[in-house]
Design goal:
The chain is α+β, with helices and mostly antiparallel strands and 337 residues long. Helix content is 26%, strand content 21%. The protein has seven helices and 15 strands. The protein has an eight-stranded mixed sheet. The chain has a five-stranded antiparallel sheet with strand order 9-8-11-6-15. A two-stranded antiparallel ribbon has the order 13-14. Helix 1 crosses helix 5. The radius of gyration is 19 Å and the shape is globular. The two termini are 27 Å apart.
Length: 337
């Protein structure tokens, strides 16, 4: 019988030496990837004070006056870093736009870094609001480094779920495209349309997404087995992990990149911090040997950079960055990449 929500998985065995516990973790992850493409992890090793700090900095950022935030608008930034206006995205195209604002960050590389000079996808310097002082970049960079390490750990375990060596994704993880996005969802008006969304239904572009959410709630995932939307109940300190379209392609559709959305009817503000890990721009994604099956690979090889550039251009128009694939109603266009 299908679970009502994505499973909650204890990630502690990853850090231990007990082989039976690690085997159990691998089985749980494999089942979650095949059935949901979503799961929550606890005991992941990220300090609670660091989680609190990134949420505190995010709240301080969005409390800045709009005229200050506009100074850092990402639309004028050549590296797609900075402020994203309220309702600037509109995934389902049925309202005035998604009821959220955001701020894009990533690995903070200098303008003379070789990958930046070469204009490789997703590489560049961050934009830090001067009004928030030195604490904002300090917390952001510490948090980004910690989540990069966690992403690498999750991928080591996902390699095991696919009958690969732990280090099978090591080259993929070198100098990765790793986007950190701060998000603020204002409370939805009580008389708002039933079509109002904090963010409309979509799937993510990259390999994996690691989401820190506050306790407000509102995140929903499409359950393909029951054809219903299910809530992802917030768990203090836990991370919601989901697979993106790149991972679905990489595994020959064995693993699922699933639809999700946010509807904030709580009457409160909602804050979340997704971390999108997409790997090295030069790495070539080709069907994994354990996923080919009798029919072989469904998709031709493609580099991370070409894949991400194509998805951004197809979905948003050239030069307009985003986080995921536009989707229509479930059952109409809810699968594949």
């Amino acid at each position: 019988m299908a679970a009502k929500e994505p499973p909650i998985i204890d990630f502690a065995p990853f850090y231990g030496s007990d082989s039976s516990s690690k085997d159990k973790l691998v089985r749980e992850l494999r089942q979650a990837c095949e059935e949901f493409g979503f799961f929550q992890i606890i005991n992941h090793g990220i300090p609670p004070d660091l989680q609190d700090s990134i949420l505190t900095q995010s709240k301080a950022l969005f409390e800045l006056p709009i005229e200050v935030k506009e100074v850092y608008n990402k639309d004028g930034n050549p590296f797609n870093r900075g402020y994203e206006r309220l309702r600037s995205q509109n995934f389902e195209k049925r309202t005035a736009g998604d009821l959220k604002e955001g701020f894009y960050l990533g690995t903070n590389r200098s303008v003379d870094d070789p990958d930046v000079v070469a204009r490789k996808f997703g590489q560049g310097p961050n934009t830090y609001p001067a009004e928030l002082g030195a604490e904002f970049p300090r917390v952001v960079e510490r948090y980004h480094a910690a989540l990069t390490e966690l992403a690498e750990g999750i991928l080591r375990m996902l390699a095991r779920t696919l009958d690969l060596e732990d280090g099978a994704f090591q080259a993929f993880c070198e100098r990765p495209v790793a986007v950190l996005r701060l998000l603020h969802y204002p409370p939805q008006e009580p008389d708002a349309s039933d079509l109002e969304r904090g963010i409309g239904a979509h799937t993510d572009f990259g390999a994996i997404t690691i989401l820190l959410q506050d306790t407000t709630g509102g995140l929903q995932v499409w359950n393909n087995l029951t054809s219903t939307w299910v809530d992802v109940t917030p768990i203090a300190g836990a991370y919601v992990v989901n697979l993106g379209n790149m991972m679905m392609r990489w595994t020959n559709d064995r693993y699922l990149s699933n639809l999700h959305r946010v509807i904030n009817k709580s009457g409160k503000e909602r804050f979340s911090v997704p971390f999108f890990f997409s790997g090295n721009p030069d790495y070539t994604i080709r069907c994994l040997p354990s996923c080919q099956g009798e029919q072989g690979a469904k998709y031709p090889p493609i580099t991370v950079g070409d894949w991400m550039t194509g998805r951004y251009a197809d979905t948003y128009g050239k030069g307009n960055g985003g986080i995921g694939e536009l989707r229509r109603e479930p059952g109409v266009n809810s699968g594949g990449v």
